[in-house]
Amino acid sequence: MVAVTLYLAVAVVTLLVIYIKYFGRKRKEGEPPIVPGHFLFGNGKAFSQNAVEFIHKSTARFGKVFTIRLLNQHVTIINDPHSYEQVCKERNFDFDAIQKQVNNNVFSFKLHDSKKMIKEASKKVKGQYLYANMQSFAHHLQEAFDASTESTPAENGWCKDRLRAMSSKTMFRAIFRTIFGKEKPDDVFEPMTVYKNFDLFHKYFNFLWLGLPIKLFPKACRALEMLVQMPTSNDIINRDDVSDYIRYSTQFMKAHGQTEADIIGHNLVFLHVNYNTFRVSYWLIYYLTQHPEAIEALVAEIDDTVRVKSETCDDESDIELSIQDLDRLPVLNSILNETIRYTSGVLMVRAITEDTAFTMEDGSVHNLRAGDRVAMYPPAIHNDPEVFENPEEFKYDRFIDAKFYKDEKEIRNPLLAFGSLCPGKRLAMTQAKWFIFNLAHQFDFQTEEGQTCCPDVKYYGHEILPPTNDVDVLYRRRENRRRIEFVHDRFVTFHCVLVEVNPYRNLQSYVL
């Protein structure tokens, strides 16, 4: 009996020591306030139920800077859009540890010499490679549009499908083939199979990122078993149309002795990043169908652009469109920005590498601990009524010639949906613009009357939120529509004559 009591006492003391070490926190002088939470789970439940509401309430109670706990991880939230640049420039706030956490916890691999590989590979989605990626994407998207209309039954000219199915058959398929090249007929690793399993696996991303073992989620395990059945690295890099990013990163990893499993894990990380562009396309279609004035303004802008372009080329040629042309369209850009504002759930998080006296934009100083995390949560800003009037409403023209303010001071970066270190931001935004431009140019589309959905706030933390439910979509070809061809910004061909276009003339600036 005495021995049992002794063992229990030792166990209690051990558990208490573990709790204090990994979960307990006593605020030190100069540190941000600590938001009270569950003794074991911390603030995880409140954050997962509705992160924006939780952060707004915490800000009202504790101020712009406060510390929360998600399981055993302490995260200091900086809810101040004016301090965005200070957060990005702070050397002690490191993203490398975060990407390693994602790689290890979610996709079970470690990247050798990660900073060098990411630095070099990231160049393959920018500059001249941006145009190569876009030409590939434009080709695959047109193929996907054609295949979707041919394979979907039509009634009175209207094709009917679920919106997730329609957007996956078009946008996801185009993105997938732009990354990995076109699959062979008998490949298991093909767009629709990958989409179905990746969509399921992605639901558990937040749990896995925090360190919960994947075995706790049988559905995620089964989905991952399918996702890892991709061709060998040699098979993929020998495809003529594989992206330069995948080719370079695969060759780099092979040269550094990484396994096939490591390469598969890395490829899934890259697919995860691009998956958010697919989700944006879903919401673009949905909100356009819910707001007739938005689609009317967009179609008018597109038709006007095509009319002007058609005046400079012969009747048989495709209409040539560049990134610069897309950037000049205020309605298109505003609709995209408003869609991202309305549906983003991204958590911009960094690891604190050293004890840091962090200075905010207003001059206030907060002591942050090494080993903790620091984060900004853009959706809390996107849903702040002081910044965006009536933030719960979707306003397609919100970003046209608009400025936004907080505390009576203009915000330099009101739309923080991609984070400061996203090398593929330009490509993702251009793909989304190209998708909706071509969809609205080639098709009439509408959702089934009476069917609605909204972003699922349970998934705050995902870059783009999934819908609470799916809806039916109807679409049909518009008559007498000329095809759109993607061309390089600098050179546009008219009647087979090469004309140099000044890339800076009349260039409008938009918040992206």
Automatic annotation (TrEMBL):
InterPro entries tied to this protein: CYP450_sterol_14alpha_dmase, Cyt_P450, Cyt_P450_CYP7A1-type, Cyt_P450_E_grp-IV, Cyt_P450_sf
GO process terms (BP): bile acid biosynthetic process; cholesterol homeostasis
Gene3D superfamilies tied to this protein: Cytochrome P450 (1.10.630.10)
Name assigned to this protein: Cytochrome P450
Localization (cell): Endoplasmic reticulum membrane
Pathway the protein takes part in: Lipid metabolism; bile acid biosynthesis
Parts of the chain that traverse the membrane: 6-24
Any Pfam family the entry gives: p450
Residue numbers binding heme: 422
